Write a sequence for this structure.
């Protein structure tokens, strides 16, 4: 089942843009999000997010497998 992903349009203090699964408790307000799309896997979502922001990083709460410390 496809899941919707969003990317934070404001750069984090760490210098990256966080990608979140829709509904993540740590998601910023809607006006600071860009929809990445619906994907079957988080890997597909990250590949697409990196086309928007090459420094995209997964949220350490909802996408820990894609979270990397800078």
């Amino acid at each position: 089942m496809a899941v919707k992903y969003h990317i934070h349009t404001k750069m984090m203090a760490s210098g990256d843009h966080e990608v979140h699964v829709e509904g993540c408790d740590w998601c910023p307000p809607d006006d600071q999000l860009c929809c990445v799309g619906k994907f079957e896997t988080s890997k597909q979502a990250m590949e697409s997010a990196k086309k928007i922001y090459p420094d995209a990083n997964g949220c350490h709460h909802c996408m820990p497998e894609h979270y990397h410390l800078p």
